């Protein structure tokens, strides 16, 4: 399939030509001479199997003529390898082209399928064998024989030029084959899509069944295995198990009844639709193939409109997404600006408070300035009214001040000496006062003793104790 596509693409881009490859000994590159054949005076509808078979049968002598025209002894091994690679590439190209023509021939004329296969296999085998024979025989032949054969081949070509397909005809054949391959691929995709859908449906059904079985196992373990165990024997009670399965069977019966009723309803709807179809057939309102085609065309138109609406909806969604992004951007920007505005407002308030403080300080400074100005004016006035004394008066005053300072120091020293004398006299006076007080106390004590000794002694009365 890939080979046919590649060959079809190559045929669409390259014209139908017969190739004659000539290699000169002086150069390594190949010189290709293109000879355009005479186009067939046929329309597209007149392309038939014999023409294609003739085109395929004429390819083998062209290949052999190409190999016969090459002087293999005049080239190196690298040049021969390049030539071999080029010939193999062309051979693969012609094989792919033959396969495409065989496919087209089998599709157009199925009765020539076996003959066409045999001709194609023979041409391929003969072409490959001819190349090997020419490569092996060219080493033993001389230059003269090659020149004679070359002249004979040129005369034969001029006398009997083959009729080949034009590039437009080959392109049309390749286009048809590509369309057939696309249709076949699409058909296979549809079939395998149906198979995959069936498998998916079966897998979903199996998964649903598995989930139901797991749920039933969980409920059985929860209700029977764990809670229906007899504490005395340690075994599951049979009554609970039987009751559990009876409940399950009743649930299945209810489900079957629901499905049966649904089936009956669907059958009734089916019968109604059959009756409506029969009535339409009797009334002549039966839908023909043209009507179905018209419905398909309308369906395609509606599907196209739906696709357009979906594309418009997608564009609107993209526009809405972009709008939401822009809105989010502007919201973030608004939040940033709001925070910036709040910060600026607080800063303005702080600046206003600072401005008020500065104004009050400015008023205080202004008051101080005014006071200073008044004081300065008063001082200037005093300076204007101040009269400086004479120098001799100042000297005499300073001399008298010096004398007075000396006298003051002398009197201060005398005062210190007098203060010290006063302190000494106070101490002496205190000692004398203490001694005088002691003498006075002693005299007072002696006078009191003398007075006590002069008083009579009183004896106690004896009769008062009786």
TrEMBL record:
Q: Compositional bias (Basic and acidic residues) spans? A: 138-147
Region of interest: Disordered: 111-169
Per its UniProt entry, which superkingdom is the organism in?
Eukaryota
Q: Name one GO cellular component term.
A: axoneme
Q: Identify the keywords attached in UniProt to this record, alphabetized.
A: Cell projection, Cilium biogenesis/degradation, Coiled coil
Family, as annotated: Belongs to the CFAP263 family.
Name the record gives this protein: Cilia- and flagella-associated protein 263
Q: Which organism is it from?
A: Batrachochytrium dendrobatidis (strain JAM81 / FGSC 10211) (Frog chytrid fungus)
């Amino acid at each position: 399939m890939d080979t046919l596509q590649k060959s079809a693409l190559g045929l669409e881009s390259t014209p139908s030509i017969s190739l004659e490859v000539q290699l000169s000994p002086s150069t390594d590159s190949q010189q290709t001479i293109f000879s355009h054949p005479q186009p067939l005076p046929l329309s597209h509808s007149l392309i038939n199997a014999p023409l294609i078979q003739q085109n395929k049968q004429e390819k083998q002598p062209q290949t052999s003529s190409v190999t016969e025209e090459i002087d293999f002894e005049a080239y190196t091994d690298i040049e021969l390898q390049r030539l071999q690679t080029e010939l193999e590439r062309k051979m693969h190209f012609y094989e792919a082209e033959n396969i495409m023509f065989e496919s087209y021939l089998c599709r157009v004329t199925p009765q020539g399928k076996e003959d066409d296969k045999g001709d194609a296999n023979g041409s391929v085998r003969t072409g490959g064998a001819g190349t090997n024979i020419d490569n092996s025989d060219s080493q033993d032949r001389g230059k003269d024989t090659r020149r004679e054969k070359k002249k004979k081949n040129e005369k034969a070509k001029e006398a009997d030029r083959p009729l080949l397909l034009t590039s437009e005809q080959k392109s049309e054949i390749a286009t048809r084959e590509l369309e057939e391959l696309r249709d076949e691929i699409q058909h296979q995709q549809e079939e395998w899509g149906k198979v995959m859908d069936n498998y998916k449906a079966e897998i979903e059904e199996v998964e649903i069944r598995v989930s139901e079985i797991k749920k039933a196992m969980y409920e059985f373990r929860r209700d029977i295995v764990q809670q229906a165990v007899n504490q005395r024997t340690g075994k599951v009670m049979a009554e609970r198990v039987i009751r559990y399965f009876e409940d399950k069977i009743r649930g299945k019966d209810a489900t079957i009844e629901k499905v049966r009723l649904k089936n009956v309803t669907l059958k009734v709807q089916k019968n109604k639709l059959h009756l409506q179809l029969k009535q339409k057939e009797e009334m002549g309102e039966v839908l023909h193939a043209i009507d179905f085609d018209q419905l398909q065309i309308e369906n395609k138109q509606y599907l196209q409109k739906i696709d357009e609406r979906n594309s418009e909806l997608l564009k609107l969604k993209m526009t809405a997404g972009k709008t939401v992004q822009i809105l989010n951007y502007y919201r973030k920007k608004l939040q940033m600006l709001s925070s910036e505005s709040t910060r600026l407002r607080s800063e303005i308030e702080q600046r206003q408070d600072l401005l008020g403080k500065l104004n009050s300080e400015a008023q205080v400074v202004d008051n101080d300035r005014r006071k200073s100005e008044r004081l300065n004016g008063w001082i200037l006035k005093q300076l204007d009214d101040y009269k400086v004394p004479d120098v001799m008066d100042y000297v005499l005053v300073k001399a008298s001040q010096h004398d007075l300072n000396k006298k003051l120091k002398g009197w201060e020293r005398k005062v210190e000496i007098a203060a010290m004398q006063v302190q000494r006299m106070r101490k002496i006076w205190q000692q004398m006062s203490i001694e005088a007080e002691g003498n006075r106390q002693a005299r007072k004590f002696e006078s009191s003793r003398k007075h006590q000794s002069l008083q009579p002694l009183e004896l106690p009365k004896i009769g008062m104790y009786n």
